[in-house]
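Supplementary Note 3. Input sequence used for the single-chain structure prediction.
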Amino acid sequence: MKVIVCIKQVPDTTEVKINPETGTLMREGVPAIINPFDQYALEEGILTRERHGGTVTAISMGPPQAREALRDAVAMGVDDAVLLCDQRFAGADTLATAYTLARAIERLGGADLIICGKQAIDGDTAQVGPGVAEELDIPHISYVKKVVSIGDGRIKVERMVEGGVEVIESSMPVLITVMKDINQPRLPTLKGIMRAKRTEIKVWGLEDIGAEEGRVGLTGSPTEVIRVFTPELRKRGQVIEVPTEEAVAAVVRKLRELRAV
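The predicted structure, written as discrete structure tokens, is reproduced below.
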């Protein structure tokens, strides 16, 4: 079983600040972590290897410091790690990111199972995983909460849907995006940490993955973030503490005053 896990290094959301002049995130000096949903993807990849044999490779696209996220993945137990790092990859939106990751996965020879976190906490789009699958022309299943079975070239999973759970079976290769319900990520062992320090993180650029320059980074991104801002605090609502019948009448009067009804 060959498993590839896509991860992302993101700013620690408890430390994120916004530049009041430019409206952009201030990343300098901000601690970086593995995207929390990707921790569950890593754990599921390692569990799959333990149950079915094979290998787990973690890949990430980002600046040189993203090596640390990949070293953390190695410390958890993945077999290999690849960083996609090239100035031409900078500024990528979800479409360009999915394209770049897909080309790297092809360079790795593909996989039986590709696992991504449900979404990244710094963007919350949940688009990259399905986008990678579309680029590779393979099935994908999102919001997976449980892998029921894997065997004979097929996978059965439970996925979260509004109001319940859906059971889906798919052929492999397949890409899944996972929820936090799926497992409990393990902590790195001392042996794993020592191995991570010795492991060479492969670094690939544009030419290494055979990507088209016009489809990566800012050049290959049809969407553009104009600005990021903190929502304005709104005034606290009015609390009316009276019997239910009087409260309903008071609310209706207030809504009419505001011409909301």
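The helical segments are 36-52, 67-76, 94-107, 128-136, 190-198, 206-209, 244-257. The first helix runs from residue 36 to 52.
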